[in-house]
Design goal:
Layout lengths: L4 E7 L2 E8 L4 E8 L4 E5 L5 H11 L2 E6 L5 H4 L2 H8 L2 E5 L11 H6 L10 E3 L4 E4 L3 E7 L8 E5 L4 E5 L17 H12 L6 E4 L5 E2 L6 H5 L2
Parallel strand pairs: 4-5, 5-6, 6-7, 11-12
Antiparallel strand pairs: 1-2, 2-3, 3-4, 8-9, 9-10, 10-11, 12-13
Helix pairs in contact: 1-3
Length: about 220
C-alpha cells in the first residue's frame, strides 16, 4: 500500500492540492479558484477520506468529481465521496459504462465494486467552470481507454492528463477498450499544446510538455 503524500501549488489564481493515495500511488487532485469555496475533484481512487479531510482544512466543498477515465483504481470511491459531499460525478460518455462494470483493475486489485451511474456524461470540447472566472476544457484523448480525457486550462497552462500522459511515459494500451493507434493521435494532440503547459498525471511525477519531447519519436513515426 502506498504512503499518502501531498503537494500544494498555485498557478494564476488556481490552487491545486495533489494527494498521492493507494492503491497504485494514484494522484488525485483538489482544484479551486482563489476566493471560491467550490472545488473540482480530479479522480478519487481510494482517497475519499483524505480528500474530504483536506477540503475541510481548506474550507472548500467538492462540487464536481471528474474521472479522467473509468478504471476502478481511479473511480472506486467516487460513490463514497458523492454520498459524503453531494458532489456530482462526471466521466466521458464512452467510459460511463465502466462505472457499473468490473475491469482489469478491480480484478487484479481485488476491489469489490458497487455499480454506479454518472450524473454527467462529458464530451470533447465541453467546458467545466471553476470558481467565478476559470474553466477547464475537456480533451478527448482515447487510447488507454476509449473514453479517456484530459482537462486543460489554457490561460494558466494546466493539464490534468490522467493515464494518457505520464512523465516519460503513458498508460497501458493492452487492456479492454485500449487502442495503440488512438494513443498516438492523443499524444500528438497533447504535444501541440504550449511547451510550458504543466502536466499533472494520474500517476508519478508532474512534468511539462516541453520535457516530454520523446513524444515526437512516437507521433512522427
Amino acid at each position: 500500500m502506498s504512503e499518502e503524500k501531498r503537494k500544494s501549488l498555485r498557478k494564476d489564481g488556481i490552487r491545486i492540492e495533489a494527494l498521492t493515495v493507494p492503491p497504485l500511488s494514484n494522484n488525485v487532485y483538489i482544484v479551486y479558484e482563489d476566493g471560491s469555496d467550490s472545488a473540482l475533484i480530479v479522480d478519487v481512487a481510494e482517497g475519499s477520506k483524505q480528500i474530504l479531510k483536506r477540503c475541510r482544512e481548506l474550507s472548500v466543498r467538492p462540487a464536481l468529481i471528474v474521472n479522467t477515465h473509468g478504471h476502478s483504481d481511479h473511480t472506486i470511491e467516487d460513490q463514497a465521496l458523492r454520498e459524503l459531499t453531494g458532489a456530482k460525478i462526471a466521466i466521458h460518455e464512452l467510459d460511463a459504462y465502466r462505472l457499473a462494470t468490473e475491469d482489469e483493475a478491480s480484478f487484479e486489485l481485488g476491489m469489490e465494486k458497487v455499480p454506479i451511474e454518472a450524473d454527467i456524461q462529458l464530451v470533447s470540447g465541453q467546458e467545466i467552470p471553476l470558481g467565478r472566472s476559470s474553466k477547464f476544457t475537456v480533451m478527448h484523448t482515447p487510447g488507454h481507454t476509449e473514453g479517456s480525457i484530459c482537462l486543460y486550462q489554457k490561460e494558466a497552462g494546466i493539464l490534468f492528463s490522467g493515464d494518457t500522459l505520464f512523465a516519460r511515459g503513458y498508460g497501458r494500451v493492452d487492456g479492454s477498450g485500449s487502442d495503440p493507434d488512438a494513443i498516438v493521435l492523443s499524444l500528438k494532440q497533447l504535444l501541440e499544446l504550449p511547451p510550458q503547459t504543466e502536466v499533472f498525471p494520474g500517476h508519478g511525477e508532474f512534468t511539462k510538455i516541453e520535457n516530454e519531447q520523446w513524444l515526437k519519436e512516437i507521433t512522427e513515426a
